[in-house]
């Protein structure tokens, strides 16, 4: 069992959870010898599961405890969590340890050679994970595993990115609020609620705008179903059954402007918080960037590097075999990145980069150390976009001529 692969591991869990009868949440069903033996088999196999680094260590949140607007996490061995999960079900979904939820597990990053799954083509244009893969430092691909009753508090996704979620097994209940509705959910301190279903929101003295909030869009996500969450949609999620899901945060040329606007609003919030020290604190603007990065995970200089890395990869594609590559890609059934897509990406980067360069807060930073300089990169982008656009127009004309000749 020591050679049990991750694919086998997920397959075992999927097989067991999907084979349990509809009433397996009841005490009578859980007590059947067959169901207990099935879950026990999973537990035994996972007890012997080893990665090349030893026991896989996973992040686990306690859904019963509020820590600010989230749940406290601890790192434990995967086999310990599976043992807990088994005991939690056998204990009528109750445990002195609370309701524990394995979430934000970087399975893809931790075991890159296992190729556990492939990103659906609809979501394959993903600058966020493309950037972090290039740096080999982080990613925003996660596996979630939790029992019935585990949940994720009210939030919007990192950087106001898109997200997608697919249920390998189990069911989720989503409460989604379109952008702007969160303003009606702020308390008198300007803070969002931890639990959007809490009765405390009915207190007009604490949540003065709650009555103007529209009801959430409620979605029940079944096993095998995939959900796309647009940028800026706040949401709260419950596991209605024992559930395993894969979740990605992602962004591309269609929402990079949203990310840039979000970063500006985050910096503005930081600046307001420490405005009283603006005239007395040395490098006040740089301190604002440090605080912003600690809160959001990125600052303006890294955002520039993010744009640069994606731009350089698109430029590399367009400069490779310039006389044949565009035509081949246009005619290909390959859903991968083609020249039109690359030019679109570069045009979106160019627009955001121009806004970044003209931003007063960015100009106050030590940007001379950036290579290439933002202005040089901007000029190069415009040259590439213009040249590529002309060549692609020529390719389209040639294709039309060829089509007429065939007809």
TrEMBL record:
Signal peptide start and end residues: 1-18
Domain JmjC, first and last residues per copy: 108-267
Description of how the protein assembles with itself and partners: Interacts with ETF1. Interacts with the ETF1-GSPT1 complex.
Catalytic activity: L-lysyl-[protein] + 2-oxoglutarate + O2 = 4-hydroxy-L-lysyl-[protein] + succinate + CO2
Cofactor: Fe(2+)
Keywords: Iron, Metal-binding, Oxidoreductase, Signal
Protein name from the UniProt record: 2-oxoglutarate and iron-dependent oxygenase JMJD4
Pfam families according to UniProt: JmjC (PF02373)
One example GO MF annotation: metal ion binding
Gene name linked to the record: JMJD4
Organism name: Monodelphis domestica (Gray short-tailed opossum)
Keyword Oxidoreductase tagged: yes
SUPFAM superfamilies named among the record's database cross-references: Clavaminate synthase-like
